Protein 1
Amino acid sequence: MKKIKSLVTVMTLGAVLVLSGCGSQSTPAATAVDPAKNEPAKTEPAKTETAQGKYKDGVYYAEAPMYGKDGWKYTASLTVDKGNIVAADWNGLNVKGGKDKDTFSKDGEYGMKEKGKAQAEWHEQAQKAEEYLVKTQDPTKVTYKDDAGHTDDIAGASIKVKDFFGLAKTALDNGPIAKGSYKDGVYYAADEAFTKGWKYMTSIVVKNGTIASVDWNGIPEDATKANKDFQSTNGEYKLAPGNQGEWAVQAQKAEAHLLKTQDPTKITLKDDAGHSDDIAGVSVTVGEFFKLAQKALEGAK
């Protein structure tokens, strides 16, 4: 009997030791298996919601008041979603139409690296400025090291960026553009020939279906001279006494009328020359401008 009891005790003790040994080993965590591939399923990372920003959702736009002496005019377009700037575009329009500055640079026609020995082409540096704005969410959070508008805040951008951030701030201050019925894009029309040394043009930018900007200008037959708006603003082109302001001032009022009406046909001309009483402070002929605007917008309907 003692032998039997001892045997039972030994067997019991052995079982306890085996169970104890098993309990000391760490149990591996269960791994989910994709039955279709018979391999561990991939775990998707948890999605984090973007914090609500401070801006009103929508499309924003602003552009320089006129084309420069070199024929370019800068623009800034912003898209805001959930209060945050999610996209920014810095570009340039040419008084003669054709490619925008971004495309002109991408196609190798601007040639900053070849002609100016720049560290990168214009569109590449412009993109870095755009990315900086999306990151900071504030067009005033940039430090300029000179009056021209260069900065050391953006790695890889040696061009002047002041115009872009200034236009971005203007766009945000103006608020989002209301939804309209036109197709977004840049629309351009110009006279086929020069008349008295000028060929008139109209450039219209549509954003969010709304006419966001209008430019009425004159291209000089003398290619060495600046556009009519530039010459008028700088006192190089003057109207005869008796007019209600210089040409650039009156042209701006005609542009504002189209921006307000959103329709180039909503103008009444009182004579064949193209004068109108619909726009206060404008004594120059405007018929040609609204005719060109109609032509330009044919592709936007």
Protein 2
Amino acid sequence: MLIVRGDATVAAVTSDGCTDRTRFQLASVSKQFTAAAVLLLAERGELSLDDPVGRRLGGCPAAWREVTLHHLLTHTSGLGHWPDYPMIDLARRTEPAELLETFHRVPPLFRPGAGWHYSSPGYVLLAHVVQLAAGAPYRDVLAGGIFTPLGMAGTFAGSPGDRADVAGGHDRDGRPVPSWELDVVGMGAGDIWSTAADLVRWIDGLRAGRVLGERYRALMLSEQAPTGGGPDARGYSYGWYVGSMAGHSWFHHSGDNRGFRAFDACLPALDCRIVMLSNSESTGVAALTDLLGAALG
């Protein structure tokens, strides 16, 4: 856990067996980086947010004809979330072509733009768009365009291989659990590993315009679609929820992979950045409430 206001660390907590170098799965917090990669390519003129996904990925069904990258980024495409794809085993590697074909077989829940439904598969599609448009593996696009420029030396995407300082996931009873597959099935949706300090560097770099120019940075941090949620998450931008907390505007996201929990947020008016990373499924709402209380106190 890490809370930073201005240049001062308000609170830093590390659990037994972990250090400040330990990398945790970010789960759906990873979507911020997927969105940033798409916006980087849009800024360079290599794609457009209005591009139909079928123009970028071959073989898409007719029902996706009107689905654009903007719809995928904002969860307004009509595509479902993982429970809508019970045939996909999140822990088993699937060949990319097979995974995409599986997505194609499930009908959309609604017309693009006609509703809001959180969709990790939509972000997997965006990762495929990124690597095709960039002509490079997705993980390399993130490393070259975001991680290295921001000095995020402890951050990487995909399976860890033999990397050191990698946390193992645990269930609610503290038992080790196998990871979800991150190279294909989770690519773009929940595939990034990072440290608390690196996530603060990410938020600071994004706010300072070190990742995106003003136009695309503003797009990323402003409401693009209403979620129907409470005031803290009234809308979704590109990879972030936006709303207000204790009367202050903020942007934030949570993540939930097998064995891991993650959360990051920023309250710009307070110059406060909040990061919580855990390798235990027992970490829940109470820990997050304590974290927010410490940040706002």
Protein 3
Amino acid sequence: MPVTYETLLNSDLPSLRKAVRFGKYTAHTAGLGRGLLQANLAILSKSYALDFMRYCQRNPKPCPLTGVSDTGNPLMFTLGHDIDIRTDVPAYNIYRNGLLDDTVSDISDLWTDDLVAFALGCSFTFEHAIQQAGIPLWHIDNNKTVPMFRSNIDTVPAGPFSGKMVVSMRAIQQSRLAEVVNVSRRYPLAHGAPIHIGDPAEIGIMDIGHTDWGDPAPVGDDQVPVFWACGVTPQVALEAAGLPLCITHKPGYMLITDIAEDAEVPVISAHTPTHDHNQQGEKS
């Protein structure tokens, strides 16, 4: 029998992972596994793995790398004692030659000995801290997927990987903007502080009611749209690269790790030129 989102909200990690692994829960993970690091996913051939790692290093804001598998090993042992990357994500997107070919809940039949899995930090991690501060998040309160958009912000290319940054949006009360910026800044593995605050058009988003991924969310009269770098960014880069095969999470459907969200997990990062919108977010 399927397991509901409401049932899993207060479940322990073994119960949550079991529900995902056996296909009983195949929906979004926002609000689940509270206190634990959630991760985006990218799986590709070892032939492209070094260039992809360079891409993550050069773009640490949207691509905070938190774990890399051994070649051909689906067990992500650095992120937990029992994580099988073939089964432990609620939904996977399968891309062939840069085009979305299928969405599945298990990739065991696609796994081969030359694949490498990358886990990248997810903004769902800092959302728990924002909620603990008493700041509501509409998409979680309404069982929706956070709205995500393609921006006009360029990422730094590496090998075949390049493209525009994807951002996620949350409507925040004007009076609590500084608090939200300070809370999210504490989580560099979850994209850190916002990349942009205010007018969506300044980062190339013409219609905030029309999302590229996720569900539209209202912005109240006393609220401001706040945008964070999003872990769907490498998914866009993978699409553009046109690889024969790559596998990602379905946006909003994350890997929940064993790692505490405030743990000092090693992350590959690099100093890269700072985009003006990044500066605005960090200084807000």
Protein 4
Amino acid sequence: MPAKYELIADALRQRIEAGELHPGDRVPGEAALMEQYKVSTPTVRQALAVLRAEGLIEAKHGVGTYVRVPRVKVRRTDERYQWEKNRVREPDSVRRSTGATEHDTGLSMPDLVFSARYEVINATDDLADAFAVPVGTKLLQRDYRTHSRTDDAPFNLSRSYLIYELAEGNPDLLDETNEPWPGGTQHQLCTIGIEVATITEEIEARPPTAREAEELGLSLEGTAVFELRKYSIDTTGRVVEVADVILPGDRTQLVYTTHLAKWVK
């Protein structure tokens, strides 16, 4: 039998999904819910915590609890990298028209706010192992954030690494003011003679850290993140980019399609 807090959460969820409570509407207060359901304060707060974790409501300090404006969903498929590679040799005007974020969200460039920050670092044990280079090798670390103009929280937390010695083959790749780069990382690598042949992604789900929850606008109460590490491998089998991406579980859909070979008759 469902607990009382689950029944309250379900009733409010149904009102939101039915459109009885619209985005921006105030949710009934704790006192009203306690009176309606004949329950205690902790039970009501537990019910509201469930809906906050699901991203359906948000608490505004000193004001009350409101139905949250739905966030843009990101549909990330394994076909995005072939789509990106196909654009590498397209004209600049085509590459500038849309990027991977627009592809995944269905938004247009004017809908988005983008930022990038570059830093030169030395490879840690982990990164040295990923690139198969000595510890301390000079790397270009690139942090990216993109969010919708209707939401301050970014779609993900993305950090990409390039081997500095390779990147400096095109000085433009060392300048963060050239971002967003038309055509993305695959086009950047193409400018220094590198063709990406394989993308490998390793994904784990876990609770967010406090910093991740704050930056992504997540509740620490039940919302998971996907921790993704991406390896871009060139035609010689060399790892040419490593990227670590934190994806919020409340608005990310991961879609992977596997094409199976036919049986030989």
